[in-house]
Design goal:
single chain, 15 helices, alpha/beta, about 375 residues, 10-stranded mixed beta sheet, 3-stranded antiparallel beta sheet, globular
Amino acid sequence: MTDETKDLIKKQIQKKYGNIIRSGADVFEEIKDLQVIPISPALDYALGGGIREGSWVKLTGDPKTGKTTTALQFAANCQKEEYGKRPIYYINVEGRLNRNNLEGVHGLNRDDIEVIESPNEPLSAEKYLGTVKAIVHAVPNCVIILDSVSSLIAQRDLDDEVRGDYRPGLQKILSDFCKKMGGVVRNQRAIIIMVTHFIANTGGFSRKTKVSDGGVKIDYQADTKLEIKYIQAWKEKVDGQEKQVGQVIHWSVVTSPLSGFPGAEAVSYLRYGKGIDEMQELIQQAIDFALIDVSGAWYSCDFAIDDKDSIADLLTEHNINIDDEKSIEKFFKFQGQVKLKQFLSDNPKAFELLKNTVREILV
């Protein structure tokens, strides 16, 4: 085929359907330029950086395991200046968004979140998803948290009496929604987070006893898929007594468009009243990477000892000679992780060095 013929066909198509033909180089430049936004240190490492704008995200887990808090923590990151101060829309399908959700996430600006809900009567799946469609088309760079897909109900099922002798129409509605919105989400550089629940696997197509709700289409549509395998109580000594301060979330990375480690596990720390504990996750990563040495109950900050020039000002503030190695080693050694965390909290320069050192390893 000659170049003249190709140009003629292109013009005919564009005249009939609009400017729908683009070069592969143009598409590549657009994809390459998509911003990656972090969730938490542990999840970012497993995902290959975080969540990319222009993508669909699926968070699946049992009730009360941390899905909503994780989604809101990501929203808090999206509100930061360096990530575009993105508009946040929370689709409160379950009607369970509460004070703890909005107060318990560090850095979340509640004034800049739009909550979509119906306090008087339930809205149908068609109306909720129609609202999402309108928002994505009208608001570039938006972040939408759909919580949850599992609680959506088709208008037909709202109108009928409660019954169980036929299959609800939700999966077809979700399939149509994904087909209509697939390319729009990327073009608008939006992010749609779909929260789903585990349900019993009655299909027999897998050895898994539980599978995610919502149908096959949203499973195919999701670029990033995270599943909560299980949670554990997170306990620390508070005033001499061991108390539960949060929960440890064990995530399974199913897919990530940023490579990452599909099939790997990421361990996230959710602290009550704070949200995802960035410091705890960084400390755990630093221990894994031998940046913090652990000997019994003692924690030694080798990342600081080995790079003392980067925090010379901090040493000077505490009257420590930068050439006195023994004093420096003593200064950066702590009995118990609680004291280590308190030191990092009180000394932002040391915490910033820890973040930068971990980041250099991961990049």
